[in-house]
Design a protein that fits this description.
43% of the residues lie in helices and 14% in strands. The chain is α/β, with parallel strands linked by helices. The chain has a five-stranded parallel beta sheet. Helix 5 crosses helix 6. The longest helix is centred in the middle third of the chain and has 19 residues. The relative contact order is 0.12. The protein binds zinc ion (ZN). The site of zinc ion has 5 residues, from loops.
């Protein structure tokens, strides 16, 4: 399985109409034409390519689901349930429609706490349990997959997901192969931003490993910089911009 991590599919001019607001969030919002080009690379591939979408922004149904269906694919949408029907987010009828059209729905926690891994265990578990329940009541079917808000995965987050009955947990870690941990399948994803080139996506969908290695190096550098503190973080930001420019 190759899992790609997307957020909203919306033009830059309409970015505020789908998902979370702000420049950081906007960096993850893709123009519909760009996303359509990505989706076309999956046509005719027998490889199991998963297009996954975090945050439950209003663009999930139109145009995202329409684009995926036009190339014979279905998406996997992860919903922070406290945001259902808020401005810019899917409402209950839209979520049912997505599921009815064959798309997968999973939880993205209830309140989208960032970071989630520093909350008390019981609160992390409540995030998974309540969001899962909301989605199951809404869709009338089991919901056993989730994705970690903000990418802050940790053993405590996985343990709580397991206790809440999830069987598959998608992370933001650029790990190309899913791993089994105590009955939970943990799936890394390739993060897609506005800076990601179509050639990079094509290579990932073809099964290439170079883009994963590059994203993993960046991921580890970020984790290290966060541990070391602010001074190094600034140095790293310059590095990140060089990486992005080269992408
Ligand atoms: Zn999120």
């Amino acid at each position: 399985m190759i899992a790609l991590l997307y957020h909203d599919v919306v033009s830059a001019a309409r970015a505020a109409t789908s998902g979370f607001g702000g420049a950081d969030a906007d960096h993850y919002k893709l123009d519909p034409l760009v996303f359509a080009a990505h989706a076309r690379h999956a046509v005719g591939r027998d490889r199991d390519v998963r297009f996954t979408f975090d945050d439950g922004g209003a663009s999930a149904l139109e145009p995202t689901a329409d684009i995926l269906e036009s190339v014979g694919h279905r998406g996997h949408f992860f919903i922070p349930t406290d945001y259902i029907a808020r401005p810019g987010f899917l409402d209950r009828a839209q979520l049912r429609s997505l599921a009815d059209r064959g798309h997968e729905i999973g939880t993205h926690s209830a309140s989208h706490p960032v970071p989630i891994h520093t909350l008390p265990d019981a609160e992390i578990e409540r995030e998974w349990v309540t969001s899962r329940q909301v989605l199951e009541d809404l869709l009338g079917r089991p919901v056993t997959s989730g994705s970690v808000p903000g990418g802050f995965n940790a053993p405590v987050v996985e343990a709580a997901a397991r206790r809440a009955g999830l069987t598959v947990l998608f992370t933001s870690e650029p790990a190309p192969r899913p791993v089994e941990r105590g009955g939970l399948t943990v799936v890394g994803r390739f993060s897609v931003t506005r800076a990601t080139s179509e050639a990079t996506i094509a290579e990932v969908i073809r099964g290439g490993s170079a883009p994963w290695r590059k994203q993993a190096a960046l991921w580890e550098a970020k984790a290290l910089a966060k541990r070391l503190g602010g001074r190094h973080w600034l140095a790293l930001r310059r590095l990140v911009f060089r990486w992005r420019a080269a992408e």
